[in-house]
Amino acid sequence: FFSTLAGFVEPGESLEQAVEREVMEEVGVQVKDIRYFGSQPWPFPHSLMCGFHCTYESGEIVIQEEEIVEAGWFHANDLPPCPIGGMSIAGWLVKDWLERQGVA
Question: In CATH, what number is assigned to the domain containing residue 67?
Answer without folding.
Answer: 3.90.79.10
